[in-house]
UniProtKB/TrEMBL annotation:
Domain ChrR-like cupin: 107-198
Signal peptide: none
Protein name according to UniProt: ChrR family anti-sigma-E factor
InterPro entries recorded: Anti-sigma_ChrR (IPR012807), Anti_sigma_zinc_sf (IPR041916), ChrR-like_cupin_dom (IPR025979), RmlC-like_jellyroll (IPR014710), RmlC_Cupin_sf (IPR011051)
Gene3D superfamilies noted in UniProt: Anti-sigma factor, zinc-finger domain (1.10.10.1320), Jelly Rolls (2.60.120.10)
Domain of life of the organism encoding this protein: Bacteria
Pfam name, any one: Cupin_7
CDD domains: cupin_ChrR
Length: 220
């Protein structure tokens, strides 16, 4: 079960098609495993359709945006569906198809490059031509620790395999997290398998450990 989710603004941008391709992929992968967020997106799409139909007749009030977000956050989005199943049926590409289309092979067999200590990376930004963001797969060896760091921009991450923990909690497979320059953390891989994540960065990370700081000029 996923415990960490995109916020309502991110889901609204996803529903409206306003996100970059890498960020939309992160949310799509999360939605495939999260009935709660699928329900929110389904509600947003329904509200958007109604607003489009009534656009010539009704002027949108300035506070309507806030009201929509409040309704999404307060409603029980896991109501029973007509066929008796809980949640809303996904309207998205299955996660395996999305990942295989992007990577073309098993995620554990990719040409990983050792970066620091227990961390290996694979920059796949070139698979998203025309995007300014850096898109990186990161693998933290089972039981391993990543160097303490913060961020020079925003980092959006979804866990593809395994789990990691930091002072903010435990993040399991398909959990979604957004960090920025206000956050400093030191992830640790938990469980008995490597933790693999997909991250979209608007700026490079900044190492904060005593000795690791010397490596900052060499980190993109």
């Amino acid at each position: 079960m996923t415990r960490h989710h995109p916020d309502s603004l991110s889901l609204m941008d996803y529903s409206a098609g306003n996100l970059s391709e890498p960020l939309a992929l992160c949310i799509r992968l999360h939605l495939d495993e999260c009935p709660e967020c699928r329900g929110r997106v389904d509600m947003l799409e329904s509200l958007g359709a109604v607003m489009m139909e009534q656009q010539p007749k009704v002027a949108i009030k300035e506070d309507m945006f806030g009201a929509i977000l409040a309704r999404i956050d307060s409603d029980d989005t896991e109501a029973d569906s007509p066929d008796g199943n809980v949640g809303v049926a996904p309207k998205i590409t299955p996660k395996q198809s999305a990942l295989q289309k992007l990577l073309g092979e098993d995620i554990n067999q990719l040409p990983w490059k050792r970066q620091l200590g227990d961390v290996s990376v694979l920059d796949i930004s070139d698979r998203f031509p025309g995007q300014r963001q850096q898109v990186v797969l990161q693998k933290l060896a089972a039981g391993g620790k990543a160097p303490a760091h913060t961020h020079r921009g925003e980092e959006t991450t979804i866990v593809l395999q395994g789990a990691f923990a930091d002072q903010n909690g435990v993040f399991n497979q398909w959990d979604y997290v957004v960090l920025n320059e206000e956050h400093e953390h030191k992830p640790v891989a938990v469980g008995c398998e490597d933790c693999i994540t997909l991250s979209v960065l608007s700026g490079p990370v900044k190492l904060t450990g005593t000795f690791a700081r010397m490596l900052n000029p060499f980190i993109r």
